[in-house]
Amino acid sequence: MKLAVTPEEQRRWMQQWRGAAVALEEMKRHQLQTLTEEQAWAQIEALQSLSDVWREPDQSSGLIEQQALFKKLHDRALSNGV
Length: 82
Fold this sequence. Notes:
- By secondary structure, the chain is mostly helical.
- It has three helices and no strands.
- It has helices spanning 7-33, 37-53, 63-79.
């Protein structure tokens, strides 16, 4: 991909992206206007099913347990004269 270097290239690049943004917004508006009730419910159900895949994040990263293990190993090494 070639970068827009000159001011004229940069202006044309911005015009192109502004035009794309307008076209995408029009497409989104059209899709929403022509959406049937059945399609809307299907999309809602698809979104709701995502909650089955995602779960609450773990409350612990395991670092506390790891540090406790390191301390235990360190103490054991000290008691063994290592």
